[in-house]
């Protein structure tokens, strides 16, 4: 113990044994305690000041550590109740249907051509064999060199319809290649489908095939629905039929005295 300082225990014992020193020793005891309290308070204040000086440095360091590096600036185009066309610097253009969204990086065209798209749009892409045009369509990716196609990306419908050129689609590790007048689609709860557009011209051959099987093959090939009288399902069809979907349907219906009627974009009725 430092010279001149009294041990609190000695002071307490002195008070207990000699009441005459009670007042003097009590005063010394409280002074000793007060000095210790003040010393601790000074230490706390010094520590708080040190933390106040260190905290800004730590926060500044954290800002530099977590600050994103090389963040690309992006532009987003959104259509509301109207249709709009976006022209890209590579010569491509995109016709966006209402309630669609297109996001483009300011780096577009320098080394890659990549965009993100949601909604419905018609893409007319300028050809560049060294820089494929890539589309992030959320649930799937599309890659083209130069082509024209429709892309649909909504909550319930994911579809690509190709008119010119070639398209590569990647979905869940599966790759699908489309040729002109072919299409690809995916719906929640169903498998991916690769089929022909109604405008695609093909040749079908049947040899004494029941009408039900013939129409089923057309439905699967073009992803269309065909309603017809149940009484004719066992009728037999033979021959080679060439043309687009409507042409073939007309040829098959004629000998059966049926007339194809279009109900909507994906449904026909024979009556």
UniProtKB/TrEMBL annotation:
Pfam families, per database record: FecR (PF04773), FecR_C (PF16344)
Biased composition (Basic and acidic residues): 1-12
InterPro entries tied to this protein: FecR (IPR006860), FecR_C (IPR032508), Ferrdict_sens_TM (IPR012373)
Name of the protein this chain belongs to: DUF4974 domain-containing protein
Membrane-spanning residues: 50-66
Superkingdom: Bacteria
Start and end residues of each stretch annotated as Disordered: 1-20
Originating organism: Sphingobacterium ginsenosidimutans
Boundaries of every FecR protein domain copy: 81-168
Residue ranges constituting the Protein FecR C-terminal domain according to the UniProt record: 204-265
Keyword set, alphabetical order: Membrane, Transmembrane, Transmembrane helix
